[in-house]
Design brief:
Layout lengths: L9 E4 L5 H6 L7 E4 L9 H13 L2 E4 L13 H13 L4 E5 L2 E3 L3 E6 L5 H18 L4 E3 L13 H12 L2 E5 H11 L3 H7 L5 E6 L3 E4 L2 E3 L8 H14 L4 E3 L8 H32 L7
Parallel strand pairs: 1-2, 1-12, 2-3, 3-4, 4-7, 7-8, 8-9, 9-12
Antiparallel strand pairs: 5-6, 10-11
Helix pairs in contact: 4-5, 7-8
Length: about 290
């Protein structure tokens, strides 16, 4: 199940407090926007009409919060059907969710890590296939930040790979989450990045975080993107290709002009990676030996 190449460039996570400013801006702020559908589904009236005006003018993706794909509870089929209607109404290009869970006989109000086991991978993959069948479109799963790994039997990489392969779904590669986890759990972020399957990567997330201690980072989406995350994003482009990249900023949101600067930085990096790839391809063609005519 492949995602249509319908988004390009640098995207921005749209918060409701940004809505008026974005609507009033004549120059496009971002190449696409992303929203949590749960933050818009319940609303009608002026807010709904404003959102519809934006989705008619711009490309949108959705990044969900409450599907709870790894939960022991049954899937909320009515909610998934609501999502399907919402996506069609607003021409939503991509739908992603977290490879985690947030409910177990009630809402947990946090994204909890799924145990890294083969049994859990099979369980989650089956639920992903069900969601995709109902939506009639792919479900893209994000590698998440986590602070403990209860019941772990296989590596995080193996767990992600098993889920993607068994569900035949795609990956939202969150670069910041890789960096945060690499510091918190003591692994090589670049090696982890290289080991992910390029053919499964649909798009990227990038964000900032909070450093609570030298060996403890908290994934807040409330700060500027730090240099190590920028560097890892550059490596992602070179390793897995230039794909749509979403800048998440959920707290301490600066003026739109500051957000625009971050988006411009993403675009520059994308172009640099494309140029590097083109030069490499050209060099390989130039150095290829000619076939002798016998």
């Amino acid at each position: 199940m492949n995602v249509k190449a319908s988004l390009t460039g640098a995207g921005l996570g749209l918060r409701r407090e940004m809505l008026s400013e974005v609507l009033a801006t004549t120059r496009p702020v971002a190449d696409f926007f992303e929203v949590a559908p749960e933050n818009w589904l319940p609303y009608g009236g002026k807010l709904a009409s404003q959102f519809k005006a934006l989705t008619e003018r711009h490309a949108f993706a959705c990044h969900g919060l409450s599907l709870s794909i790894g939960s022991p509870d049954p899937l909320d089929i009515n909610f998934i059907k609501q999502l399907k209607v919402f996506f069609r109404e607003h021409n939503i290009k991509l739908y992603s969710e977290h490879l985690s869970y947030c409910s177990a006989k009630g809402h947990l109000y946090d994204l909890m890590p799924i145990p890294f086991t083969e049994e859990a991978a099979r369980y989650v993959a089956a639920r992903i296939r069900t969601v995709q069948d109902i939506l009639e479109q792919p479900l893209i799963l994000e590698n998440v930040s986590y602070y403990a790994a209860p019941g772990q039997q296989i590596s995080e990489l193996d767990f992600i790979g098993e889920v993607l392969e068994q569900a035949n779904c795609q990956l939202l590669l969150d670069v910041n989450n890789i960096y945060v986890n690499s510091v918190n759990h003591g692994y090589d972020a670049a090696a982890f990045l290289r080991a992910l399957p390029s053919e499964r990567v649909a798009y990227y997330h990038v964000a900032g975080h909070y450093q609570e201690a030298p060996d403890l980072l908290v994934d807040t989406h409330g700060a500027d993107i730090p240099d190590p995350v920028w560097q890892l994003l550059q490596q992602a482009y070179l390793q897995h290709g230039v794909k749509p990249t979403l800048y998440e900023r959920d707290f301490n949101i600066p003026a739109l002009s500051s957000l625009q600067h971050e988006l411009d930085t993403i675009r520059v990096m994308q172009q640099q990676a494309l140029n590097a790839s083109s030069q490499k391809t050209g060099s390989q063609k130039h150095s290829s030996p000619k076939t002798a005519v016998l």
